[in-house]
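User: Fold this; tokens only.

Assistant: Input:
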Amino acid sequence: MKAAVIGANGQLGSDVVLALDAAGWQTVPLTHQDCEISDLHSVEAVLKAIRPEFVVNTAAMHNVEKCESDPERAYLTNAIGARNLAVVTGEVGAALLHVSTDYVFDGKKTTPYIEGDEPLPLNVYGNSKLAGECYVRTINPRHFVLRTSALYGRKPCRAKGGLNFVDLMLRLAREKGRMRVVDSEYVSPTATDDVAEQIALLSKTEAYGLYHGTAEGSCSWYEFAREILSLTRTEAKLSVASPDEFPAKVARPSRSVLENAALKRERLNCFGEWQGGLRRYLKQVGSALALA
């Protein structure tokens, strides 16, 4: 069985390739240089040559500020790109798993969002990703749309300057000895290898549909930073930043916590608590030499 991974050199895509390989797929990694998803002809040429049975799309323009300043490019990648993949996977008879985001919600719900909640994005990024979801869900019946949140992984993320939140906190602690982090925004920090394992599990099923896929539980960014310092026994002064101390240039959801309701209903959820994912990540990258 052959699978193709779009965005295979990215933070999530690199782990998806490993997980699919381990699950028995013959995995074909595709980068931006191999396939330009905003160009239908490029997608057709590549996928019709490969003829995969399963395609995973991890490619996206997810720098929120750049999406806001260049909405045309954001929609070409996040919406039209998803459409092109849905069209061509339908033509070649492949199932498509499209990775989406918690940013399709406005963050005003006080309890975790489930798949049936109405999306209401606050910015261009969220709107373009929601448009991509709609294309996938209406064009290729054999689809999985997997929304996830607050990702971090071993592969550097170019959109975040090469550092994920965990690495950034440890660098600030090491170089400055102090940091201030907001506690007014809540997320479910999720390790990319956990998402990759969930994708590999879904790839073996025909349980098509819309899913939320994040680590269990939630925390503020401040609480996340505190746990990072605690697990690594890093000495640094961590304090709470006021909500207006780091003013956002683009509106973002303040509580984008997702509940994996559909995965649990299908008995397919393989996510554990977010603290466990963080502990494992720190061991993998060697940042925690003395875990508690």
